[in-house]
UniProtKB/TrEMBL annotation:
Gene3D superfamilies xref list: Cytochrome c-like domain
Iron among keywords: yes
Domain Cytochrome c: 22-113
MF term (GO), any: electron transfer activity
Pfam families according to UniProt: Cytochrom_C
Organism name: Cnuella takakiae
SUPFAM superfamilies: Cytochrome c
Keyword Signal: yes
Domain of life where this protein originates: Bacteria
Keywords annotated in UniProt: Heme, Iron, Membrane, Metal-binding, Signal, Transmembrane, Transmembrane helix
PROSITE patterns the record matches: CYTC
TM annotation in the entry: 141-162
Signal sequence segment: 1-20
Listed name of the protein: Cytochrome c553
Length: 176
């Protein structure tokens, strides 16, 4: 019984740690290994600088583009064609990256954009109204959800521990 509780507790702790890892950290790992060869946040390399990319495109568009830019260009997606016309280089498809992976990459890019932005030189923006809207729906909402989930998990694990304690006490009483 004791070892069972231990295993359960360990599983819970591991799950909690996975949950608590900030999305941007995972994004950084993927970005460094899969994107940094062609992209930087602030400088144009083989591909465009990705700082503020979430303000130029919707999150859905970014996910689709990273997973399969070629088919988007073939289908005549206006934004995709426009960038291709500019760079004339095909970006390889990353079909194995999930939407969450790509959202985490964007979270990392957002962090880096903020860190790089000097007080006066913010990333160029098109229309402020649109920027505000996208910022709220994709950025803050996701963060809020993460915190809410974390809170639920914490309260859950506390309740779980209380239950285990109560059970133990009852078992000890029965033994006497
Ligand atoms: C081999 C080089 C290469 C790699 C690797 C690469 N890209 Fe690209 N990327 C490009 C090029 C070139 C473009 C310009 C669009 C085009 O020509 O189709 C681009 C465009 C983009 C755009 C559109 C940018 C804009 O300003 O509209 C996004 C978003 C993007 N890449 C994200 C990524 C992410 C995320 C990764 C890593 C998972 C990645 N790219 C890996 C070359 C690359």
């Amino acid at each position: 019984m004791k070892s069972r509780i231990l295993v359960l507790a360990l599983t819970l702790v591991t799950a909690l740690q996975t949950w608590a890892a900030p999305p941007a950290a995972e994004g950084k790992t993927i970005f460094t290994s899969r994107c940094a060869g062609c992209h930087s946040v602030s400088k144009q390399l083989v591909g465009p600088a990705l700082g503020g990319v979430d303000q130029r495109h919707s999150m859905d568009w970014i996910v689709n583009f990273v997973q399969g830019s070629q088919s988007m260009i073939k289908k005549g997606d206006k934004e995709a064609v426009a960038i291709y016309e500019q760079f004339k280089i095909s970006m390889p498809d990353h079909k194995d990256l999930s939407a969450d992976n790509i959202k985490n990459i964007v979270a990392y890019i957002q962090e880096e954009t903020k860190a790089a932005a000097a007080p006066t030189a913010a990333a160029p923006t098109d229309t402020p109204a649109q920027v505000d809207y996208i910022g709220f729906s994709s950025g803050n909402y996701g963060l809020l959800l993460t915190y809410a989930g974390l809170l639920v998990l914490l309260v859950g694990s506390l309740l779980f521990l209380v239950q285990v304690k109560a059970l133990r006490r009852r078992m000890e009483q029965e033994q006497v």
